[in-house]
Model the fold of this input.
Amino acid sequence: MSGLSEHGEAGLEKGRVETQRYEHALMCTYGTPMRALVRGEGSHVWDADGNRYLDLLGGIAVNALGHNHPAWVGALTQQAQTLAHVSNFFATPPQVALAERLLDLAHAPSGSRVFFSNSGAEANEAAFKMARKTGRGAIIALEGGFHGRTMGALAMTHKPAIREQFAPMPDGVVFVPADDADALRAAATAAGDDLAAIIAEPIQGEAGVVPLSHAYLALIRELTHRTGALFILDEVQTGVGRTGAWFAHQLHGIQPDVMTLAKGLGGGFPIGAVVAFGERAGALLGKGEHGTTFGGNPLAAATALATIQAIEDEGLIDNAKTVGAHIRERLSTVPGVVEVRGEGLLLGIGLATPVAPDVVQAALAAGFIVNPPAPDTVRLVPALTLTTAEADTFLTWLEGYLATHSTSGEQA
Ligand SMILES: *Cc1c(COP(=O)(O)O)cnc(C)c1O
Done:
């Protein structure tokens, strides 16, 4: 563990000062920052004291191209020098091009349309309003589901600890256990003609990288088709190449009525999007019925276009598949690892014991950034540019850590 000496106590002084100032000036919504970071290049970042880390969190599945990617920086710089922001009273070429590109990548039928937001929560707010515009009131959401922290998105987010203290929520949302076909059928029957939408993530990222089965996604599609409700698929974390397809639903051959995107879409620039499939969904929100000042502004749209273009030009969807498969393969024989969930470069390493927070802290000290969405799960959502050799440095460290901390020897 050579990283420990490099990143020892003495090597964190400047960052500690930065962190103290942070805690005085910022609300403590995120707790104490793990480190103060000052610079990034590819899949690496550096802290205020000059220590280097392999970034396997990628800004939480955001930095699809890694840090300081020349095409991304070039697009942002050029757009800033051309036209940065104008409001949605005007059309701009990058915004129109991005909407067309997303419809094309999603194989969206004619009549499909896009709305741009600034974040994942905002994309889900728009989807929530689309559900209301059907004239029906009930929305079925899943236990373990996460859709964001604003009130509408939060109303559809299951975790009681982050939702209940902000009650009353917007009305009409019922939760069912994920991947339980009978519970979903029963809830749909109970809602009857009032069922407006079913919302789900193809892989529940914040719950600990928990995929929904193909059969369950097909059941949502079938029930929403039959009842005329909207199938809202939250691809905020899974979308834009991360799972080894442009969108995770393409792995299943199942098209939703509404897809929300954010995180990786802008490669680090804040942008979200709602893709409404087909004439009916595409026309639900009309003139004056929704809007946002920044949504899809030229800077955001140009960086998103550059991100998509680089993913295509550099074969990053294939890279996500290849490097993801390599990680799974190596971890399949590591004592202490019971399973690896997810697709492509959205991976949850399931540990035999609930030691993920300890693993994350030790990894940080050794120069690796990962995170624990659940006590027994270490999540990897790195840049789609991650190489097998870079992944190997972490896997070798993790093997060593788990061997010396013998979580495999104990019974979970
Ligand atoms: C992160 C996330 C959101 C919320 O996105 P923000 O940009 O943080 O508002 C919504 N849904 C899913 C599946 C996410 O992973």
